Amino acid sequence: MKLLRVTACICALLASVSRMAAAQPVAVPVTALADQVFVSGREVRFEHLGSFRGAPVVRVDDPGLGSMLEILGAKMQFQPGTRFVVFTRADGTLITFTVGSNALSVDDSSRAMPFGPFYQGTQLYIPLQPLTTGLGLYERHFHQAFAFSPQIVSVQRRVGQQRTIVEIIASAPLTWRSSLGGPPKHPALVLTFPGFANAAGSHVTLGGREAKAASLTQQGPPGFPITTLTIEVMHGVKYAAHRVGGSSQMALVLAHNEKDLALSTVAIAPAVHISAMPTAPPTQAPTPVPTPAPTVVPSPAARGAVATAAPVPTAVPAPQVGGSPSPVPSGAEEPGAQVSPGPSPSPLQKITDIFVTDTTDASRITLAVTGPVSFEWHRLAAPDNRFWIDISAAALIGPARDIAVKLPQVRSVKISQHLITPDHVVRVIIDPSQPVDVVIGAIQGAPNQLGIEIHASPPPVDAPQSGIGMMQAPAQTAAPNVAVTPGPKHADLIVIDPGHGGNDPGAMNQQYGLVESHLTLAISQKLKADLQHAGWRVVLTRDGDYEVGDPNGDDHQELQARCDVANAAGARLFISVHINSSVSSAPSGLTTYYWRPADRSFAQTVQAAAVRATGAGDDGVMREAFYVTRHTVMPAVLIENTYLSNAHDASLLTQSWFIDRIAAGIAQGVKDYTGGPPSS
Amino acid sequence: MSGAQFRGTVLIRSRLRWTRASAALLAVLIIVAGCARHATTPPPSQVNIYYCKAGSDQLVRMPFTADAKLKGPALATYALNQLLAGPSVGRDSLVLFPSGTQATVNIDGSVATVNLSGPIARSFQSGAGDEAGLFKSLTYTMTSLPGITSVQVLVDGNKRAALPGGHFELDEPLTRDTFAQ
Q1: Would the CB atoms of A593 and B127 count as touching at under 8 Å?
Q2: Is the CB of B130 less than 8 angstroms away from the CB of A625?
Q3: Would you call A503 an interface residue with chain B, using a CB distance cutoff of 8 Å?
């Protein structure tokens, strides 16, 4: 809390900070440092590693820094011209450097560094060791070499019914090996974490009917430590290891019954639908929100909805102080009715990233948050159609800024840290030129993302003028079975999913010797090349004839694994490539499927381009509940590229030029939909 | 149309009024995609079976007359058997469950739980279009029965994310809204 306040203060006191930075001339030049750097036992080559005042420093644009962060599942945000260099660790911890300040913030605490980030010429350097400490790395310095290893940060017990859950958090994406062994009377479960040092203490008390105690030891050479977790389990206990929450966390479930080993799936709150339609005479511009009342309890309706794991209803009136719900007077805003998230204060959450997805008729602003937040929204009556959202107990990482959306009806969107005291409030103001429909809510499948969708379509006539909403807190175990927390967003990354593979060949045409899984791979590989040529980065969910995920996994794991690839990579688009087949030989042509209504225009654009490129029949776009289009969190389509069961289509599918045309068509659709990758 | 195609449902089929069914097919071929939402509940003895046209999401509704004594699960079983067996004419253009598919149905409140087994539970061979069509026809058929609003599909007795080799999500009950365009 304190540190965030510090960060925000820095934001507010830009002028004085810049004086400070100017007053800190860099007289001593940076000298090149030839030391080798190893991260998790892998050598990372730095091009601009230097020494400054006897300490290692690195240029923020050094590719070695990028490689290091990639190994650690971490991310850097830095916009030239701004003062903040923000790193997000794989476990969500935020490390903020401020140019000209020697205070380093790591989540809610601040620590002093000998010196802070500094410019030499036009190049920005940051001190290496404060960064690696902040990243949770264990350091060993050898002769002309640094070795950094991620660490096991905590091992904690959570007791569930009929089972014990051991939650393990590391400072980088976890890999582990597990085995159950030992003498039958004293069985032991052993997990090893190669490449991880131990920072979680040596002993963990467990208790309960599944396990007695656990111990942690670190072995291996200093440059490549290996941490071993040994758990004394009770006779007959079974276990399952789940990757949860994020790639750097795992949950070990110990239970006597197999059915208790699965982690329950997190229920996702659908979006809260609200609207910004003027229904009343014009009113004045928004007045500044006064100091909020210390505690305002949400209306009973809202709280009840949260307790039953459902979204806050559409038209919850803005609660009044004292909790007696009364309708908001139409046309007049009630900015005094500030809302706290509940009877007890919520922990401060951070808004770590903002990204925008534009379609022709809607723009979605996604705020990456470190946990569930509550929000309150207000709108003004026409002609001032402004709409604002106040997010409670939230800290904006980085400066106030404009969010660029392509929707022509929107003049501007601004986000800022509106208040720091007594509560942290982040405000988003949407300034549309005409009434627009706004939807706010958790994004399906992404518990740590708050979506604000602005639709060009006019909202319902009887739309309310203000209300509150809350992202649903994660379920009790906070652990979807195999779900992966969406990684950082990459606006230039597309994930292509070649349908089927391995023991699931998909549909076949024996007469022509065609197998769906082979065709989908061929199309996907060509599509990858086409998209890369256009400047995109591309990841395939598989690049050979195998199952995605665990080869012995069931269809749930298989399909979820495909979604996980895209969700974890933070892809901008997801394209699942299939070949259709029917019991009837008559159907032919292409069909593109989508699920979320917002993805319809993506589907239509790809469908149109693919039909043009191939000359194949146009079966149109359809909305169907296909798994991969429902469980990916970015715009997603599934394309069925003609029918194996149709003789004409099948004969075309034997031709490589036709495969190329399909790929070219989809690539053109991506271009038409996005306008191209961000850098081009 | 060989007798073998009717498999185990010949006995049930022999009670049908064939003329009525055929007339409905040949003369009317009522395509109800989209408007089936407004379909009224048929009288207890009449059962609407919905088949999906291959290569589309359009449904074909065929009214059958069941024994008036059939109620609840027995009526649902009758409807399911008709759906699995397919119509007597026009089958070539309709999506039908793969040969050898076995299905049972239980009614719990407003949910019909349909357990699929046989070849379909081992590997689904057709494409996504047929798959969506099958589940749309199953959902519309079951939810046309009195009091049924959703269908939970089980595969070999278990709730699954999808059919093996399939695409369509099955781990939640299907309703007519699932298929809303």
Answers
A1: no
A2: no
A3: no
The pLDDT assigned to A346 comes to 60
Residue A630 to residue B94, Cβ atoms within 8 A: no
Residue among B129, B161, B163 minimizing CB distance to A591: B129
- Structural domain boundaries, residue B120: 3-179
Domain residue extents for chain A: 2-135, 147-260, 272-283+336-470, 493-674
Interface-testing mutation among A600, A624, A631, with chain B (most B C-beta atoms within 10 A): A624
Task: Report which of residues A101 and A497 the model is more confident about.
Answer: A497
CB contact under 8 A, A587 and B54: yes
Q: Confirm or reject contact between A299 and chain B (CB < 8 A).
A: no
SS (H, E, C) A126-165: EEHHHHHHHCCEEEEEECCEEEEEEEEEEEEEEEECCEEE
Nearest to A578 among B55, B128, B168 (CB): B128
Whole-structure pTM value: 0.44
A643–B contact, CB cutoff 8 A: yes
Residue A375 DSSP SS3: strand
Task: Say if B177 is an interface residue toward chain A (CB within 8 Å).
Answer: no
Judge whether A630 is closer than 8 Å to chain B, CB to CB.
Answer: yes
Question: 3-state SS of A232-261?
Answer: EECCCCEEEEEECCCCCEEEEEEECCHHHC
- The pLDDT assigned to A272 comes to 29
Mutation choice for B interface testing from A556, A578, A583 by most B CBs within 10 A: A583
Domains A147-260 and A272-283+336-470 share a fold: yes
- For range A428-441, the mean pLDDT: 84
Q: Which residue in A has a C-alpha nearest to residue B129's C-alpha?
A: A580
Spatial separation of the C-alpha atoms in residues A578 and B129, rounded to whole Å: 11
A500 touches chain B (CB under 8 A): yes
Strands A163-170 and A94-98: unpaired
As a CATH number, domain A493-674 is 3.40.630.40
CATH, domain range A272-283+336-470 = 2.60.40.3500
| Exposed / middle / buried, residue A93 (Cβ in 10 Å: 0-12, 13-18, 19+) | buried
As its CATH architecture, domain A147-260 has Sandwich (2.60)
- pLDDT over 90 at A479, yes or no: no
User: Considering CB atoms only, which of B54, B95, B128 is closest to A593?
Assistant: B128
Tell me if chain A has a CB within 8 Å of the CB of B169: yes
ipTM score: 0.72
* Secondary structure of A514-578 as H, E, C letters: EEHHHHHHHHHHHHHHHHHHCCCEEEECCCCCCCCCCCCCCHHHHHHHHHHHHHHHCCCEEEEEE
What's the pLDDT tens digit per position in A510-554? 888 899 999 999 999 999 999 999 999 998 988 887 777 665 666
Nearest to B55 by CA among A308, A92, A588: A588
Strand duo A590-594 + A618-623: pairing: parallel
- A593 contacts on B by Cβ (under 8 Å): 128, 132
Integer Cα distance of B52 and B96 in angstroms: 8
Q: Which of B123, B127, B179 comes nearest A581 by C-beta?
A: B127
Per-residue pLDDT of chain B (181 residues; tens, 9 = 90+): 333 333 333 333 333 334 444 444 444 444 444 444 444 555 556 889 999 988 888 888 888 888 888 888 899 999 998 898 887 766 778 888 888 899 999 999 999 999 999 889 888 878 888 999 999 999 999 999 999 999 999 999 998 889 988 899 998 899 999 998 7
Task: Count A/B contacts: CB-CB distance under 8 Å.
Answer: 115
What is A2-135's CATH superfamily? Copper amine oxidase-like, N-terminal domain (3.30.457.10)
- Calculate the average pLDDT of chain A: 75
Q: Could you read off the pLDDT of A224-271 as tens digits, one per residue?
A: 888 999 998 888 888 888 776 557 888 888 888 877 777 653 222 222
